[in-house]
Amino acid sequence: MRYIRYLIIASIAICLIVVALANRNAVTLRLLPEDLAALTGYTFSISLPLFVVIFAGIAVGILLGFVWEWMREHKHRSEASQKGREVSKLKREVKRLKGEKHEGKDEVLALLEDHS
């Protein structure tokens, strides 16, 4: 199973390297369209290889997906935490009640009575 995972990772790496080599030409990224940039006076642009733009877009998309999913699952995590606290509270209460039930009895007989 471990070798299959390594094979899959290696094939993905080879695909990414091939995409990077095929898209080495520089592209110019602009923050605003040229007409709007001329109107506002803010003309920010940067030249990067196309594969950097592609990989950065993928990374940002994955990051946004993780954050979105983490926020979406918040209610489930908080509910599970609340149920866990409730379970531990009930366990403490059961332990206390068993202690009261067997108070004054022999410990061995109390243990045998609990397991029967």
TrEMBL record:
Residues 26-94 form the Lipopolysaccharide assembly protein A domain. The chain crosses the membrane at residues 46-68. It comes from Parasulfitobacter algicola. This is LapA family protein. Keywords: Cell membrane, Coiled coil, Membrane, Transmembrane, Transmembrane helix. It comes from the Bacteria. Residues 80-107 form a coiled coil. InterPro entries: LapA_dom.
